[in-house]
Design goal:
The complex is a heterodimer of chains A (about 350) and B (about 210).
Chain A (H helix, E strand, L loop, with lengths): L6 H9 L16 H6 L3 H4 L3 H15 L4 E2 L6 H5 L4 E2 L7 E2 L22 H17 L5 E6 L5 H5 L1 H10 L1 H25 L3 E5 L10 H6 L1 H11 L4 E4 L9 H5 L5 E3 L6 H8 L4 E6 L9 H15 L5 E5 L10 H14 L11
Parallel strand pairs in A: 1-4, 4-5, 5-6, 6-7, 7-8, 8-9
Antiparallel strand pairs in A: 2-3
Helix pairs in contact in A: 4-6, 6-9, 9-11, 13-14, 14-15
Chain B lengths: L1 H9 L3 H15 L1 H21 L5 H18 L14 E5 L6 H12 L4 E3 L6 H11 L3 E6 L2 H16 L5 E6 H5 L3 H5 L3 E3 L5 H9 L4
Parallel strand pairs in B: 1-2, 1-3, 3-4, 4-5
The chains are: A alpha/beta (about 350), B alpha/beta (about 210).
């Protein structure tokens, strides 16, 4: 491995569907920064400085190939007037939906990023991470897709009901969500994010039939991604992707985050040369992996998806649970260094 | 007829589903139509979701249509289980996302099992208290995040400490992704999809149902 290869070069090479020096590793550890600083999660997320310091220490420890600028998904709902419930050992969750009857949607306007102090904190964290990265490490921002955000805005069951019962209200909600998503994603890019993770679990056929996605979420993704002024990766948050890979490829996204429920070889074959694959270590099982199990999982994922490039090793959900130990994370990191060096001679028994 | 009912549900065609159900009830009664038509359709839809062939939104909408049909054709069949024995209850531990709970509720009602709906965002203490107050025999606990799935262990311990002999059935995404989790948290049973719910409930109720 050449010592001169930076994380940025490694990631860009694989996104170009070529083999870099080794398989890039994205450890998406948004919560774990709090543990690094010995802070409760609520306190940790109160300050951009905490996040910059936490993420920097994590990368120094595990040597992964990105800075994750995600605070937590529900932070977007705070911009819309929602509230967040914090836990001591898990991701903060959105509290009650902000819309409870369809008539409210007519009066809803997209919040402005500049008006929301919490979003400005995220931008400050991105700026700080961008400075630390010095162009050598990608900084990943996150924006929830206009198609998936209504799950938090309305509640999941109401959202599904209203797509049939209140189609005009839902169309309007998608439109204003798109305005917010584009402004939010571009603000992150302007603050120094290298790329945006377009978080779109509802694009997954696990949640939405492909023909329904094609009629709404896919159209929205095409329009939205075209207005985001930088590269994007679409994450389906543990949902399956195989039946919609062709559609996702046409949205202009550069990569997809894929599920532990699908075979990585099959996903890679379907994506090859068109979209890079990010995944798919099982974050839930990871909690009780031994170092040997972590090594085996890493080795299997690399064997299935790494040849030819176009692959970033990561978890399947886009966030590694709080309960995963530092020893396991270290075992994953070491296994990538041991087994991820191209040209992967061990795959041929050499 | 089974195929026609299944197709109507997957097309979200309420009227077509009702027509098929009405046809099926003529010879043998509505109860038989629910058992022979509605339950198998919902179980099939749930199984197709588990194998990745259908989407969760289709499972949900199918359940909604079946609930509406039950309410319309047999208003005393489902209810909220408030006055019915045996006592089965369902709730979402800590999380706000109630879709999985809602789907399981629909399937249980279609299966003729009255269920009390405790809602979402519940604490361990609230679930223990309500289980005790209602004399619940089977408590179905839905979770979304790993954190809340692990809290099922605290719930089971609290129920046992309170001397309650309730059977706990765990469900939700973390249990699907980690097949050893249910055993770890001490659940009496686990459902990997809504289609499992009726069989589990009937098994745990034994001769009571």
């Amino acid at each position: 491995m050449s010592p001169t290869v930076t994380s940025m070069e490694r990631v860009l090479t694989t996104l170009g569907h070529r083999e870099p020096d080794r398989v890039p590793l994205f450890l998406l550890l948004s919560l774990h920064g709090a543990r690094e600083l010995g802070l409760p999660l609520r306190e940790y997320f109160r300050s951009a400085r905490h996040v910059v310091e936490g993420q920097s220490r994590l990368r120094a420890r595990y040597g992964h190939d990105c800075y994750c600028a995600l605070f937590y998904a529900a932070i977007e709902m705070e911009a819309w007037g929602g509230e967040t419930r914090f836990f001591e050992d898990g991701p903060p969750n959105a509290e009650a939906p902000i819309v409870t009857h369809a008539g409210q949607i007519a009066g809803l306007e997209p919040p402005r990023v500049a008006d929301c102090a919490r979003l400005r904190q995220v931008l400050d964290a991105i700026s700080g991470l961008h400075e630390r990265a010095a162009g050598e490490v990608p900084v990943i921002g996150v924006a929830v897709s206009p198609y998936s955000l209504p799950v938090m805005q309305l509640g999941f069951d109401r959202y599904l009901d209203w797509q049939i019962e209140e189609p005009e209200a839902i169309e309007r909600l998608w439109r204003i969500n798109q305005e917010f998503c584009v402004e939010w994603a571009n603000a992150q890019l302007q603050a120094g994010a290298t790329a945006i993770c377009y978080f779109d679990p509802l694009a997954s056929p696990t949640i939405t039939p492909p023909e329904v996605y094609r009629g709404a979420g896919w159209r929205i993704a095409q329009l939205t991604l075209a207005r985001i002024a930088g590269p994007t990766a679409t994450h389906l948050a543990s949902g399956r992707c195989l039946p919609v890979i062709d559609l996702l490829a046409q949205t202009g996204t550069a990569a997809i985050g894929v599920s532990a429920l699908e075979d990585l070889s099959e996903v890679k074959r379907a994506c090859a040369g068109r979209i890079a694959v990010i995944g798919n270590l099982n974050g839930i099982e990871m909690r009780r992996w031994t170092p040997a199990e972590a090594e085996a999982a890493v080795k299997e994922a690399i064997a299935k998806a790494a040849p030819g490039g176009g692959f970033i090793l990561s978890d399947n959900h886009g966030e590694i649970p709080w309960q995963v130990s530092g020893d396991t994370l270290m075992a994953v990191s070491e296994a990538v260094r041991q087994w991820g060096e191209y040209p992967l001679p061990w795959r041929d028994g050499k | 007829m089974r195929d026609a009912f299944l197709e109507a549900l997957l097309d979200t065609d309420r009227l077509a589903a009702q027509r098929v159900l009405e046809s099926a009830r003529q010879p043998a009664g509505l109860g038989h139509a629910l058992d022979s038509l509605m339950m198998p359709a919902l179980e099939r839809i749930g199984a197709l979701w588990e194998s990745g062939e259908l989407a969760l939104s289709q499972v949900y909408m199918s359940g909604r249509i079946c609930e509406d049909l039950i309410d319309a054709l047999m208003p005393d069949k489902g209810g909220n289980g408030a006055c019915s024995e045996p006592r089965v209850a369902i709730g979402v531990l800590e999380d706000r996302h109630a879709l999985g709970k809602r789907i399981v509720l629909s399937v249980l009602r279609a299966g003729g099992i009255p269920v009390r709906d405790y809602g979402a965002g519940l604490s361990v203490e609230e679930l223990v208290e309500r289980t005790r107050a209602d004399g619940v025999r089977i408590l179905l606990v839905s979770t979304l995040m790993l954190r809340s799935a692990l809290r099922v262990k605290d719930l089971v311990a609290a129920l046992r400490a309170a001397g309650l002999a309730v059977k706990v059935v765990a469900g939700g995404a973390p249990f699907v992704l980690d097949r050893r989790l249910a055993e770890e948290v001490g659940a009496d049973a686990v459902g990997y999809g809504a289609s499992d719910a009726v069989a589990i409930a009937r098994r745990l109720l034994g001769g009571e149902q």
